[in-house]
Structures are given as structure tokens and as C-alpha cells.
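pls design
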């Protein structure tokens, strides 16, 4: 009897926490790209590759590393973006010839957590010998970022080059199964029916390899996170940007939380929190079941933008009740800026604490759209 009561309580909570009805996505976006469809079951390693018929795609890695002797600590970000060209071009979808209508961006950053230093660089290029992503497996070579599956496909290699001869080489092995986020396999980013994505994540990867930094080569180890997201209209109408975090807690669980910011500063109803347990199962709530409170901001001396880099997230877990996570940056200046100031964003390594101020894990925090105009570029 007690098990049945608990079952009813869980189901009731899930129905209440959804907070948003199902919206059927169209087959095509208003620009003519395919839109991710519900109930799609990805096949790996094939779906680690590029999905060229969709307008926007990215492969994203972050992680916390330390030297094997524990003396030095680092955070890293490596991201490859694929931006599609005009789908009315008859050669666009299938051709992989040099210079075809696929644009690639490579974002690489390294945070020196001991000395508070941050290095980053951006490369933009059309598809060609310096910009290529395979379609049948994880095969990426874009500027200074390369990724390839291990021969036994149990993990992959990631290589990232930095300015002044810096280089990070990692072997990444999943410690949990890949997670498909969202309802019926779709992660929604607003009320626009086309604002959905396939969102697949390795929430905890064992990382080991070597880092060349300031002329010194050192062996490093740690844990990483990998996202692969495919979309054709990332942000819905009226959305200015997002605040997003992934947390890896000391108890072997992970949390992903994001606030979709509306033009008026409020949180969109599709904002969400996900919990991933030790086995890789997930729990999910939407905006009406959590709060994202900005506690302190940092103003960039480079762009003049102000970012809320210290935040408190309080959420109603379906089983455990109220939980609180406080995120504190480990380096203040972790602003990534490329060729245009309004494209700048803050992406940085953070410490996670509970409501008593006790450290319970580590995180990366991403703050995007504070320069304005992001929503227009992602639709």
C-alpha cells in the first residue's frame, strides 16, 4: 500500500512540475531547415557526427583538471559550432566539397585556477581542410580543436590548441550512459513550435592526458562534461539569452539547470532543472518549481558587460524536496569575446556549495546574451 501511495505522489508531482503543454514541432523551420523530431532514438557512434540538414549544431566540452601531483588546477572549455548556409542551394545538404556552405566556429579557453588567469581564442572558417566534421562518427577537425573516437569506441580523444603554443590532449571515457534531455527526446527553448533541439550529453567523463601551458608540459587528470546539441531555431521569440550551468557533485550525481531570459528580464516557462543520478536516470522540473537568484555580478573591463557570476539556485526536487546550490566563480574574469563585442559571453569554472556554504561539487556556468541580439542570431 505504501509503495502505491509513493507512486501516486511521484506521478502527481511530475504532472504538476511539467508546467507546460506539449507543442508539436513542424517538419521544417521558417528558413527551410529540418527541425528535430520527437521520439528520435540516436544511433551511436553515427549520431556523434554532423547533422547537416539542420541549421545549428554544437559539440561542447568543459572540465576540471589537476596535475597528477595535485599541485595545479585548471578548467577548460572546447566548443565547435556548425552554422548552416542557405538550404535552397541544391549542393548544400550532402556535398562536403571544399568551401561548401557550412560555417564552423572553434572556441577554446583555459582557466588557470591557481593564478586567476584566463586564455581564450576564436577561429571562424568555412568548410575545408581546416574545418571539417564527419557525418558517420565523432570526427572533428576545426581550427585547433580535434576529436576522434577511440579505436574500441569506448570513449574519444580531444585535442585543443591555445595561443602561444599551449595544447591540451585528453582521453575521455564515459562513466555513465549518454543522456537524452527533454520530453520525448526534445529540449524546448520557447513557445515557438520550431524552438526545439536534440540534446545528448555525457554528464561525467573520466579525463586524463597532458597539458602544455606556458612552456611546461604536465600530466593532468580530472572529470569532464560533453554536450552535443542539434537544432534549427535555438531560441524562441522574445528570448534575449540564457544562464546555464552543469554541476558535477561529489556524491556522483549531476545537475543541469538553465534559465531562459526573456527580453523583460523574467524567466521563460521552459527554463528547467535536471538531476542525473549515479546510474544516469533523470528527474526534471520546469520554471515554476525553481528560482535562479543573482547574488553578485562582475563587470568586464574589456566589453563593459556585466555578468551575474555568483548565483543561488533553489529547486523542488521530486523526491528530496527543496535543494539549494550556490555557485561561486573560481576566477572572476572568464569572459569569452571574439570578433564582435555583442557576441561575448561568460563561461567559467565554479565551486558548488549547499545552503550552509559547504562545498559539494564543481560546475561550469555559462551566461549568454548580455551583449544583446543573441535571440535574433539563433533563429
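designed seq:
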Amino acid at each position: 500500500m505504501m509503495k502505491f501511495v509513493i507512486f501516486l505522489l511521484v506521478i502527481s508531482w511530475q504532472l504538476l512540475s511539467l508546467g507546460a503543454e506539449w507543442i508539436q514541432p513542424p517538419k521544417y523551420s521558417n528558413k527551410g531547415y529540418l527541425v528535430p523530431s520527437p521520439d528520435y532514438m540516436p544511433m551511436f557512434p553515427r549520431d556523434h557526427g554532423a547533422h547537416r540538414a539542420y541549421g545549428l549544431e554544437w559539440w561542447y566540452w568543459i572540465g576540471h583538471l589537476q596535475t597528477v601531483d595535485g599541485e595545479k588546477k585548471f578548467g577548460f572549455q572546447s566548443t565547435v559550432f556548425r552554422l548552416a548556409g542557405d538550404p535552397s542551394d541544391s549542393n548544400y545538404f550532402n556535398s562536403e566539397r571544399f568551401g561548401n556552405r557550412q560555417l564552423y566556429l572553434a572556441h577554446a579557453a583555459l582557466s588557470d585556477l591557481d593564478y586567476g588567469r584566463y586564455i581564450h581564442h576564436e577561429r571562424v572558417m568555412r568548410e575545408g581542410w581546416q574545418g571539417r566534421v564527419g557525418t558517420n562518427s565523432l570526427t572533428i577537425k576545426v581550427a585547433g580543436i580535434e576529436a576522434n573516437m577511440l579505436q574500441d569506441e569506448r570513449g574519444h580523444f580531444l585535442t585543443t590548441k591555445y595561443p602561444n603554443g599551449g595544447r591540451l590532449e585528453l582521453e575521455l571515457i564515459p562513466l555513465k550512459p549518454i543522456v537524452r534531455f527533454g520530453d520525448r527526446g526534445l529540449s524546448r527553448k520557447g513557445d515557438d513550435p520550431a524552438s526545439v533541439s536534440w540534446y545528448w550529453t555525457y554528464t561525467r567523463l573520466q579525463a586524463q592526458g597532458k597539458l602544455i601551458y606556458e612552456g611546461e608540459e604536465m600530466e593532468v587528470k580530472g572529470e569532464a562534461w560533453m554536450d552535443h546539441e542539434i537544432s534549427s531555431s535555438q531560441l524562441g521569440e522574445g528570448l534575449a539569452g540564457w544562464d546555464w550551468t552543469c554541476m558535477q557533485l561529489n556524491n556522483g550525481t549531476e545537475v543541469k539547470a538553465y534559465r531562459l531570459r526573456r527580453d523583460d528580464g523574467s524567466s521563460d516557462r521552459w527554463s528547467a532543472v535536471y538531476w542525473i543520478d549515479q546510474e544516469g536516470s533523470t528527474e526534471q522540473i520546469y520554471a515554476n518549481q525553481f528560482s535562479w537568484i543573482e547574488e553578485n555580478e562582475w563587470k568586464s573591463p574589456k566589453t563593459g558587460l556585466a555578468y551575474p557570476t555568483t548565483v543561488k539556485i533553489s529547486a523542488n526536487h521530486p523526491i528530496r524536496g527543496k535543494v539549494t546550490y550556490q555557485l561561486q566563480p573560481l576566477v572572476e574574469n572568464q569572459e569569452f569575446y571574439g570578433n564582435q563585442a555583442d557576441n561575448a559571453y561568460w563561461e567559467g569554472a565554479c565551486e558548488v556549495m549547499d545552503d550552509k556554504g559547504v562545498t559539494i561539487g564543481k560546475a561550469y556556468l555559462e551566461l549568454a546574451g548580455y551583449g544583446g541580439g543573441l535571440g535574433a542570431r539563433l533563429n
